Amino acid sequence: MKTENRLFAIIMVSMFFFAAGYGYWTWYNHNPAYGRPGEVEWVGTIALLFSGLLTGMIWLVFWVIARRIDLRPEDRPDGEISDVSGEVGFFSPGSYWPLGLAFTTVFAGLGVVFWLPWLMVVGAVALLFAVGGLTFEYYTGTRKLGPQ
User: Fold this and answer.
1) Quick one: what percent of the chain has pLDDT higher than 70?
2) 91: in domain
3) Cβ neighbours of residue 19 under 8 Å, at least 6 residues apart?
4) What is the DSSP string of 76-95?
5) What is the pLDDT of residues 119-142, one digit of tens each?
6) Cβ atoms of residues 26 and 45 within 8 Å
7) Dihedral-angle region of residue 141 (phi above 0 means left; psi in -120 to 50 means alpha; beta otherwise)
8) pTM for this entry
9) Could you say which of 26, 27, 78, 105 is the most buried, measured as most Cβ atoms within 10 Å of its Cβ?
C-alpha cells in the first residue's frame, strides 16, 4: 500500500498546486486590456480544489491501511515477482453475464444522458437482474457447483 499511498499523495499535492496556479492565472489575466488584475474564475479553481480534496480522501484511506498491514512484496525493495505468484481467483470461462451487464449499463447510461426517466428505470431494473445473474450464476441451474 505504500506505492498507492505515495501515488495519491503526489496527485493530491499536484491538484492543490494546480488550483493555486489556476486561480492566480485567471486573476492576473482576467482583464488584460486595462493592464490590471481582475477576478478569479471560481468554477475551475473550486473544481481543482475539490479534485485535490477527493484525491486526499483516497490517499487517507491508503495511508491508514498502509500503517495497519505488513509490507507487501511489491512494497519491499527486496521483493521478488515470485513472492506474489499463485492463484488470483476464479473467473468464469463461459459466462454471458458480463455482456448483459454491459448492455444494461449502456441503456441506463443513455437514459441519464438523454434524460429519459423511463429508460433510466428500465436500465436500472435490468442492471439489477444482470448483477444478480452474475452473482448467483454458480448457485442455480446447470452450472451449480457442489453436490447435485
Assistant:
1) 93
2) no
3) 45, 48, 49, 51, 52
4) STT--GGGG-S------TT-
5) 999 999 999 999 999 988 888 777
6) yes
7) left
8) 0.58
9) 26
Beta bridge partners of 4: none
21 & 59 share domain: yes
Distance CA 39, CA 15 (A): 21
DSSP class per residue in 118-129: HHHHHHHHHHHH
Closest CA to 123 of 96, 140, 102, 144: 102
Instruction: State which residues form the domain around 131.
Output: 97-143
Residues 6+ apart with CB under 8 A from 90: none
Is 9 in the same domain as 50? yes
Mean pLDDT estimate for the chain: 88
CA gap 135, 125 in Å, rounded: 15
